[in-house]
Amino acid sequence: MSNADPGGRSPKAPTTFADLWRELESIGRDQLTGGYRRYSWTPADTACRTWFTRQAAKRDLAVETDHNGNLWAWWGPRGPGAVVTGSHLDSVPDGGGFDGALGVAAALAAVDLLNEKAFYPERPVVLAVFTEEEGARFGVSCLGSRLLAGAVQPDAARALTDDQGVTLAEAMRAAGHDPARIGPDERRLEGISALVELHVEQGRALAPLDAAVGVAEGIWPHGRWRLDFTGRADHAGTAQLADRRDPMLAYASTVLAARQAATAHRALATFGKVIAEPNGTNAVPSAVRAWLDARAPDEAVLETTVTTIRSAAEKSAREQGVTLSVRQESYTPLVRFDEKLRDRIRGVLAAAGMTSPVLPTGAGHDAGILAARVPAAMLFVRNPTGISHSPAEHADLADCEAGVRALAAVLEDLAGPA
Ligand SMILES: [Zn+2]
């Protein structure tokens, strides 16, 4: 652009949220299911990163990739006190289009809105894209922000494997990123004054309140446990029932026990991923690997719930003559978002004529991980059905645009004149 104004900004043709969304929508989408398969360090992930980098460049933002593979696009002066916004672009298997992507697209659209108003930040505004938030490929959710905050050991992270046995280190290298330097980044964290992540609502609290945008109160403690049931493979047609050591039976009764425990303790417990070996129709499986996702309003309840499920799994394993090993893969304690920041955001939104109910959530987020290190907050955009982690996940365009306006107002306040 040759016609830059004296302030160094280039007048841009206004880009609407809808334009951004149209571009992003097709990347990593499965034709058959309509769901997204944007797994970290795969070609779909690279396409998302390229899209973001191109959009940031269009807005004269300086993009860098940190040692952990997170993207940071800088707007305004470089220096301390950065106001960070953004989310993630990876997805769960056959996930919805809004989870993560909405926060990234909204951040870009918010910059456009502020540019149109001729607002120029007094402190840096940084648009962040965190890596492997869903943990869909390597099993640990919020891996990019956990590494950044020092909540995961780099050696342990490098050795994480996907379902094909590819390590994180190998996958990063294959995508052109050096895994040798992953790990905590204190200087980057010290330079952040606030983090505001906008996210599609996962649940249905805003619709009955007739509000397009809400503000997060906190995140339930949650974790993932891997259960390995090991029995003995056998012939489905000849092995007598009494002689079998069938890990599928032990697994099946554990699933039912998890549901019972969750109901009894008012918690949530889900087995959403299971791998049977050798996975043959006419074979008693030799092993069943399953992943438990458990969440609860407080840590004591979560612990009781998981202990109950574990005891049930041990009991049924014994009854079926199979062995069981249980390993915790990740754990996130209760997160309370910064109250001062939340009040300030609600004040800004009220001044802009928006009501913003305060909501708790059972879903983990990068902002939840980083809340332990920097003042953090979240904005939620109404999800009319509440469905998430599914191709049916949805938010109306008008609500997404309301989210963009809310985020822009918040950034203007946080990065504007003190
Ligand atoms: Zn998300």
Topology overview:
Elements: H1 17-25, H2 43-58, E1 62-65, E2 71-75, E3 82-88, H3 101-116, E4 125-130, H4 143-149, H5 154-158, H6 168-174, H7 186-190, E5 192-200, H8 206-209, E6 213-219, E7 222-230, E8 234-235, H9 247-265, E9 268-277, E10 283-284, E11 287-295, H10 299-320, E12 323-332, E13 335-336, H11 339-351, E14 358-361, H12 366-370, E15 376-381, H13 397-415
Parallel strand pairs: 3-4, 3-5, 5-15, 6-14
Antiparallel strand pairs: 1-2, 2-4, 6-13, 6-15, 7-11, 7-12, 8-10, 9-11
Helix pairs in contact: 1-3, 3-13, 9-10
Any overview of this molecule?
The chain is of the alpha/beta class. It has helices at residues 17-25, 43-58, 101-116, 143-149, 154-158, 168-174, 186-190, 206-209, 247-265, 299-320, 339-351, 366-370, 397-415, and strands spanning 62-65, 71-75, 82-88, 125-130, 192-200, 213-219, 222-230, 234-235, 268-277, 283-284, 287-295, 323-332, 335-336, 358-361, 376-381. Strands 1, 2, 3, 4, 5, 6, 13, 14 and 15 form a 9-stranded mixed beta sheet that branches. Helix 3 (101-116) links the parallel strand 3 (82-88) and strand 4. Helix 9 runs antiparallel to helix 10. Zinc ion binds at residues 88, 99-100, 133, 199, 365.
